[in-house]
Design brief:
The chain is built from two helices and eight strands; from the N terminus they run ββαβαβββββ. The protein is an alpha+beta fold. One of its GO terms (molecular function) is carbohydrate binding.
Length: 135
């Protein structure tokens, strides 16, 4: 039986069976998602603790991931339509802006630029970098 080794496109990093791209320009969550789709992937879906650790090694800037509750507040879904079962929330998060109108609706998730790449909810319109995954 012949197994072909998967190769990632230039500018992408391999981990497990996926390739990852870390944007160099910031934009909204939707802009990030569109860019990932144009590259043949989508915003990253973090499936397990190993993938979370991998992402944290590159999270030296806050970056969008593929998790949101845009359809139903508090019902977190990944871009592949799977429900949230692994979480790495920052303390006291998610908080949907704490009810403060200054923050607006916080329906999209980003990894923070801390040493564990903890998660926080923000307005999807905030300009951040993003992480794409190509399975």
């Amino acid at each position: 039986m012949l197994f072909l080794e998967k190769k990632c496109p230039k500018g992408w990093n391999m981990f497990g069976h996926s390739c990852y791209f870390f944007s160099t320009n910031p934009g909204s969550w939707e802009e990030g998602r569109n860019d990932c789709k144009n590259r043949g992937g989508d915003l990253v879906v973090i499936d397990d603790a190993n993938e979370q650790r991998f992402v944290s090694t590159f999270a030296n800037k806050a970056a969008w991931i593929g998790l949101n509750d845009k359809v139903t507040e508090g019902s977190w879904k990944w871009v592949d339509e799977t429900s949230l079962y692994l979480a790495n929330w920052e303390e006291d998060q998610p908080d949907n802006g704490g009810g403060d109108p200054e923050w607006g609706e916080e329906d999209c998730i980003h990894v923070r630029d801390d040493n564990k790449a903890s998660w926080n909810d923000l307005s999807c319109e905030i300009s951040l970098f993003w992480i794409c995954e190509k399975v």
